[in-house]
Amino acid sequence: MLMTKQLPSGGNSTSIKQHPPRCHVERSETSAVASRYFRFGGDSGVTSQCGYSWWCHKVISPMTLPIKRVKFRRLALIRALFVFVLLTSIVHGGFAQWAKTIDCPSGRVYRDIRKDAGRSEYCDHMLPGSLQVKDGPSRFWFSSDFEGGAGKYNEGREVGRWKECNRFGSCEQKNYPELDPDELQRPNIKPSIPLEYIQGKYVFDFASCRRTKITYTENGEPALELNINPGPDGCLYAYSAENEIEHGMESRDLGHHCIIPFQVGQKAFDSLDLMSELPKVGLPQYCKHDILITGPGPVDVEPSNGKSSAQIFTAKYDNGNNGTGIAQARMHFQKDAASRSDRCVVRFDPTTRNLYLLSDQPGKYLGPIAVGSDDSLWNNECLLSGCSNGRLSGTTLIVQFAIRFNPVQFAGPHHMYLELIDAQRHSEAAGDVGEWTVPTEEAEAHLTAWPSNRTCPATPSPLH
Q1: Of 3, 27, 160, 383, which is most buried by a Cβ count within 10 Å?
Q2: For the CA atoms of 14, 17, 19, 22, what is the dihedral angle to 10 degrees?
Q3: Structural domains present in the chain
C-alpha cells in the first residue's frame, strides 16, 4: 500500500496497573519498553498473576534472611542485564520504531513507505487526472541505521543539494539545478510539469520537455511511472508499469518508450498511452516496446527437498528469447558442486527428445533412450527411466526426470543442481536448488542385485 500508518512513536508508559497481593512488578524504564515489546511482538510463554511473565515475582518480607536479599539482588541484576541485551538486539534487529523526520509543504501528502528493512519518506503533490509527483523534502534508508539519501524534490525532479549513498556505504554530495544546461538551451523550456490534465484531456508539452518523474494511480495505488527526459532527438517518455518496477527483470516486457520531436509542440489526448494516441491524430508511431533480451538459463526443480529412493523430479529451464535455444538440460545429484565422482547426472535433449545418464566413467554418457519408452539407463548410483518426459511450454522447458537411486551405493543427503548447454555450446548452471536424501535400505538389500526394480517410480503427471 502506498499510504501506510505511522508506527506508534517512542516513549515509555508511566502508569502502573494494580496487581494482586504478593505480586510486584519492576517498572524501570527498561522493563517498560521490554514489556511493551513482548505485548506487541510475541508471548514469552510464561504467565503469572500480574500478567507480565517473568517481571512478576513475590514480595520479599523485611524479615527475610540477608542471604535471600543477596539472591534477590543478584536475580534482579541478571534480569536487568538480560533486558539490556534484549533491547539491544531488538534495535539492531530492525524492531526499532521509526520517527517522522520530514515536514511536507502545505497541500502536499506525507508518505512513509516501508519495504523489507528499508524506508522512504517523501511528499506527494496530487494532480488532476490521477497524476502525482514528488514535491518537498525526501529521505530514504536501506535499514534503520543506514541512510541511503536525502534531498528535495520540486514538482517531480530532484533539486538542490542531495546526499546519495550506495549499499556499500560510499556517499557523495550532489547539486541538482532547477534546469539542466541542455534544457536551458531550448527556447521553449518551462520550469513546470510538461504534462497536465485539462478538461478531460492529457496535455503533453513536447516542446518544453522538462525532466520530470510522474506517477499515475488507479484506486489510489501507483499503476504507472512515467519518466520524461530531453534527448538529442526529442522528448523521451519512458513508461514502466508498477509490477515491472517491483519485479524488475522478471518481466521481459519492460514497458515502452517514445521519442517525440520537440517541434510537435503541445498535444492533447484522451489517455496517457502515446503508443495508441499518436496514430489517432495522424502522427507517426514514435513509440516502441522495450524488450529484455535473455539467453537460456536454469530455473528450479520440484520437489526441492525430500527423502526416498525413487522420485519423479520436475525441472524447469528458461529457453530465453535470444534465439539460441537449449541443446541439453541436465540435473545433478552430488555431495557438493565440486564432486566429480559418486554422483547421478541425468540429461534430456529437447531437439531429439532423448534421455541420457552420465556413466561411471567421467565424461561419457549412457544412452540415448526415447522419452515415454519402457527402456531405462543405470549406473552404480542411479537409474533413469524412459517414462521421463519433457516439453517446451512458452519459453519454459519442463522436464520430468523419473529416477531410482541405489540405496547401497548412493545413500545419504545429496545436493541438487540444474545445468544446461545452449545451442552454441555455452554452459549455464544454477546454484544449489535443493537437497535430496536417499534412505539406507535394510541389510537384505545388500544381497539383491542392482537394479532390482526398473519400473517407473510413479505415473508422470501430464505436462502443460
Answers
A1: 383
A2: 10
A3: 24-92 (no CATH), 109-291 (no CATH), 297-447 (2.60.40)
In a structure prediction context, what are the per-residue pLDDT tens digits for the chain, which is 464 residues long?
A: 333 333 333 333 333 333 333 333 333 333 333 322 222 233 333 333 333 333 333 333 333 334 344 444 555 555 655 545 444 444 444 434 678 999 999 999 999 998 878 899 999 999 999 999 999 999 999 888 889 999 999 999 999 999 998 876 778 899 999 998 889 888 889 989 999 999 999 999 999 999 999 999 998 888 889 999 998 889 999 988 754 434 333 444 557 899 999 999 999 999 999 999 999 999 999 998 877 778 899 999 999 999 999 999 999 999 988 778 899 999 999 988 777 788 999 999 999 999 999 998 878 999 999 999 999 999 999 999 999 999 998 889 999 999 999 999 999 999 999 999 988 788 888 778 999 999 987 545 555 789 989 999 988 777 76
CA–CA dist 250, 222 (Å, integer): 19
CA dihedral 455, 458, 462, 464 (to 10 degrees): -110
Q: Copy the grid coordinates of residue 409.
A: 551405493
